[in-house]
Amino acid sequence: MSQGQQWMHADEDGVRPPTDLRTDIPHPARMYDYFLGGKDNFPADREAAEQALRISPEFRTGALANRAFLQRAVRHVAREGVRQFLDIGTGIPTAGSTHQIAAEVAPDVRVAYLDNDPIVLVHGRALLAAAGRGNATVIQADLRDPEKILADEEVRAVLDFDRPIALMLVSVLHFLGDDQDPVGIVRRLTEALPSGSRLVLSHATGDFATPEQVDRARALYANSTAPLVPRTREQVAAFFEGLDLEEPGLVTTPLWRPDGPLQDGDDRAPGYAAVGVKP
Ligand SMILES: C[S@@+](CC[C@H](N)C(=O)[O-])C[C@H]1O[C@@H](n2cnc3c(N)ncnc32)[C@H](O)[C@@H]1O
Hints:
- This protein has helices at 28-35, 43-55, 58-79, 98-105, 118-131, 146-151, 153-158, 182-191, 211-221, 233-237, and strands at residues 6-7, 10-11, 14-15, 19-20, 84-88, 110-115, 136-140, 166-170, 198-204, 244-245, 251-252, 271-277.
- By secondary structure, the protein is an alpha/beta fold.
- The chain has one domain (6-277): Vaccinia Virus protein VP39 (Rossmann fold, 3-Layer(aba) Sandwich).
- The strands form three sheets. Strands 5, 6, 7, 8, 9, 10, 11 and 12 form an eight-stranded mixed beta sheet that branches.
- The longest helix has 22 residues, at 58-79.
- It is globular and about 45 Å long.
- The model is unreliable at 1-18 (pLDDT under 50).
- The chain binds S-adenosylmethionine.
- The site of S-adenosylmethionine has 22 residues, from helix 1 and helix 3.
């Protein structure tokens, strides 16, 4: 038994076994929550997040820009008629999660949320229970095992793989090393989706940071539950192979279909984003 905090949580199936949250180790989900101004984080997460902000304040501005991209992209694909979302690397649900944004466009959307961090499960189930569970579910799953995700009964119960699905890989692939074949994982997932499906993706980059900032950021995340692997624009473009990019293509996150005035430096933001369509 680890020294991490244990929570009991319940959903409509009854009380579940204790969840080991390992609050003594920084978790990317909880650090991200801290950057976004959320309250679902612990001292180890806050300390690591503050260290990250000392490396660059862009950890926070980048997180906010990323979340805003997610929301614009969900609205966009829902307006284009996509009604199903497979959101992997969900993060701790805060206001403006995928199902809330999509439901503003179409109340009949269906969403499967998947994350490998147990705290996301705890909060996600509570959020969905409060909101009326409807057509959304939260599942503990690991992006590194795409076959298991595709075969998961709960995923299949919510999503119809004969109709277009928006696969959301927003700010998650940079937690996979090259040795885990992230390009192959994305290809395996998109292969399973029908024509007209979307890939909504964002990814951290060090293209506009100094080598020293990149090294320090990598070293910091090496002490968390997942490594940080920033990638170049060319490396991020490889995730979209075989898909047609929607306008404006692969750009820094604030530049993807902005809904307000741009700020100085938005073209040098620490993340790239795009939406691809499966032909
Ligand atoms: C930075 S948050 C992004 C949250 C949300 N997608 C967003 O963009 O607002 C990254 C999330 O990916 C999750 N994650 C990291 N590695 C993962 C993996 N191998 N499988 C599933 N989820 C993972 C983390 O637990 C965290 O919740």
